[in-house]
Design brief:
The chain is built from three helices and seven strands. By secondary structure, it is an alpha+beta fold.
Length: 124
């Protein structure tokens, strides 16, 4: 499901910019079914060139810290070139405490870039 901005039904996640709390609306909320019932995923593809990149990542990590056990996946996703020279999707898995802890402490897009380089999982 496309999670549209600012609708009554939209999933809204807070994040801070310069000490002011604002809202992000992750692009996708995926609903899957398994033998135990429904699983909900939050997937946020995000352009790394945007200024709000790292604040939104921090907000998503803080949200995941509180709610990771209620979702199948909570991921920040980028399209970038791999070592093979081709573009691939790379995902930061916010269900992992090590990833959340790294992301929660960043203060720049450059730091987030480094976390993508070291911790993101490539999807082929």
């Amino acid at each position: 499901m496309r999670n549209l901005d600012r609708k009554k039904w939209s999933l809204e996640i807070p994040y801070e910019v310069g000490g002011v709390t604002t809202s992000m609306f992750p692009d996708l909320v995926v609903v899957r079914a398994d033998a135990q019932g429904y699983i909900f995923d939050i997937l946020e593809p995000h352009d790394p060139s945007r200024k709000d990149n790292y604040p939104k990542a921090v907000g998503l990590a803080k949200f995941a810290e509180k709610h990771w056990d209620k979702f199948g996946r909570i991921q920040l996703i980028r399209l970038k070139k791999g070592v093979d020279g081709r573009e691939h999707f790379y995902r930061l898995d916010m269900a992992k405490a090590t990833v959340r802890n790294k992301v929660r402490g960043i203060t720049s897009n450059e730091e987030l870039d480094r976390i993508f380089d070291t911790d993101a999982e490539r999807e082929d």
